[in-house]
Every structure is written in structure tokens, then in C-alpha cells.
Amino acid sequence: DVVDVRGLGAEGVFTYDPGFMATSSCQSAITYIDGAKGVLLHRGYPIDQLAKHSNYVELCYLLLNGERPSKEEYQTFERTIRNHTMVHEQLANFYKGFRRDAHPMSILCGVVGGLAAFYHDHLDITREEDRQISAIRLIAKMPTLAAMCYKYNIGQPFNYPRNDMSYAENFLYMMFSNPCEEYQINPVFAKAMDRIFMLHADHEQNASTSTVRLAGSTGANPFACISAGIAALWGPAHGGANEAVLNMLDEIGDDSEENIQRFIDKAKDKDDPFRLMGFGHRVYRNFDPRAKVMKETCDEVLGQLGLADDPQLRIAKRLEEIALEDEYFVKRKLYPNVDFYSGIILKAIGIPTNMFTVIFAMSRTIGWISHWHEMISGDYKIGRPRQLYIGHPQRDYPTE
Ligand code: ACO
Question: Name one GO cellular component term (predicted).
């Protein structure tokens, strides 16, 4: 219906689009997806080429600034990130307020939001310099904060970051080193970790990125906005899916035909809320290009570790084969998404399941902050969707 949208006598079309299936919320020059063809480009570069030839830190620069860095720009950017990896010593007290068995995502939501309390010096979002330093701080500190979640969970002392290491090596070091035993970083793990960071770096207006933009449109500080994004990512329909995939593979137990078929049938049963985790995507109606690279990385890592015959990998591959031949999945164009194979790699590296979504949040921080930066740097309005009211018409409050 044509309605007076703003109550100001101006006419406009009011759309009702639950789930934003056909509504663009913004203009963006960061990431392009063609869901029908299975294409994903960051600033024009295909994700498979980036995964092969670039690295996470360079991708961060590209997403945030729009172009690949020159050699000097890369060196300065990387050095600046290394210089900001430490978190304020007071922040350790924040962790200690949580139960030891708290889910690391709940701790992460809290500590990232709490970062704003430490950086009053650069929270003027109208200044480019402040926006840039906030972005750098977030990219640099996320691995430190994430590893601290894990260390707190298992009751080990926190590790300070090591600025002589690469981004991925430093994360592995902070996760797995302890005062009794220096962790020897396996270069295969470091490379796989970097690739996982890259494949999760950005994905245009997904639920968590839209949440960051919506929060940012009110003028909220970037740390608060990223914390909102982390909360949105936590759900099993979004970032929580990588954790859910491994739980599902555990539940399936073995790769026998009848066992896998039982779970496929369960996923097809409309009276059963169960869905095949790591399958399907709002935008892709074809192979998720990230899933292809993830599957190759999975084969590479497990092959190099002599685990090519890993039981969970066998279940995953058989599940994929059976689903891709099943009319239900074919008709609905449901393919494995990025999370279908990431959990198997993370597990092989030694990362516990409850840290999977934390790693997704770390990797996606660059996407979130790039979208926030793009929005705040241009013209934007406060995000304020309307609704289709279906409640009572006006009625009088009874006075007797
Ligand atoms: N298993 C079984 N059926 C599915 C699945 C699945 N994984 N995904 C979608 N379907 C079915 C739906 O039941 C629906 O069937 P219908 O037409 O008969 O009603 C049809 O496919 C379309 O699904 P929708 O839910 O309408 O698709 P939507 O775009 O809203 O949802 C989503 C996308 C949330 C990703 C969904 O596919 C899903 O829940 N997948 C499992 C969770 C998952 O892996 N999430 C990670 C997404 S990627 C990411 O965030 C990094």
C-alpha cells in the first residue's frame, strides 16, 4: 500500500520483507557475492585467489582501505598491528569475574564491549584518525582476547602476545604455550589458521555485519558495535554453525550408510527442527566458494598430519555426497557452507569446539570494522526499520 511513510504528508511505498530477503540496507564497495554462481569478491579480488596468494593481514588492509597495500604500506600496517597486540593489564580482572566454565563467546561479548572503557582517548568517531586507530586496536587485540578466553576456561595463566611472530603464529602461541612447556608452532597449522581467518574475514550484509552497522548508525563507539556483532554471530544459524557441525558429526558417530541416511531423513522431516548443520545459505544457491577452499585446506592439513582417514572427515565427506544427490537438497539448492569443513581443521589443530565461534568472531572483526568505517565515513542515517502492526486497534482503558 502507498502510505504516508513519515507522517509528514509525503507518500512512499512501505515494504514488508521479513528476514530482509529482498531489501538492500546500504550501499557498499567492500564485498560482492553472486549467490547463483558461487562468486565471492573482496574489493574485486576472488576469494580463492586471495586465499592462495595473500594473507590475513594484507586482506585486513585491503578490506579496510579499499586497495592492496604497497610493500612499505604493508610493512607499516603489520608493524602497527604487532604494536597493539597487548591488552590493558586491568582487563584480566574482567575475565576473573566470569565463571571458569562460561562459554568463551559470552566472555568475548563482555570483554570486547569493555575495551571502550580503556580507549577514551580516541573515541571521536567523526575523526578518521580515531576510526583507524580503533580498527587497528580491534584487529590486533582480538587474538589476545580470544586466547585469554581459552586460557581462563582451562585455568592456565594468560600468555602475553609475542610480537616477533606472525598474526596466526602468535594466536597459536597464546592459545597453547604454557609456563612449563613452550609450544612448538607447526607451520602447517599456522598456514591453515591464516586461511581460516581469511575465509571468514567478510561476507557483506550478513546478520552480524548488519547488526554492527545498525548499532553504529546510532553513533555508538566501535568497540560496543563489534560486541553487538559478536552477540549476533553466536547463534547456531550463523557463526555458531561451525561448533554445531562438529557436535552433529559426533552425534552421527560413524560413516555407515544407514546411520548417515537417518540424519539426512531427520533434516528433511518438516516436523523435526533438526537441520543439517553447515548446509545451506541465505545468499548462495550454489557451492559456497569458501567451502571449496576450506575442503582443500582440510585435506591438506589432515594429509600432512597423517590423518587423511580421520573418522569425522569420512563422515563429513559421505554426508556431503549423499546430501548432494538427494532430491530434497538438490531442489532447494542446499550446498555445504564455509563452516562444514572448518571445524574438522580446527579440531586437528587442537582447538576445542567451544572456541570455534570465537575464532570466527576474531576473523570477522575486520569485516565488521570495515563496514562500520565505510558507513561512518560516508552519509548515513540511523537504522530504524518500520513494522507491520498486527495488534489491537486503539481501545479505551477501563475506568471501573
Ligand atoms: N537442512 C535441512 N533443510 C534446510 C537446511 C538445512 N541445513 N537449510 C535450509 N533448509 C530448507 C528449509 O527447511 C527450507 O525448506 P522449505 O522450503 O521446504 O521450507 C528451505 O531449505 C529454505 O531454507 P530457509 O530456512 O528458508 O533459508 P534461509 O535462507 O532462511 O536460511 C540458513 C539459511 C539459516 C543458513 C539455513 O540454511 C540453515 O539453518 N542452515 C544450517 C545452519 C548453518 O549451517 N548456518 C551457517 C550459515 S553460513 C554462516 O553463517 C557462516
Answer: cytoplasm
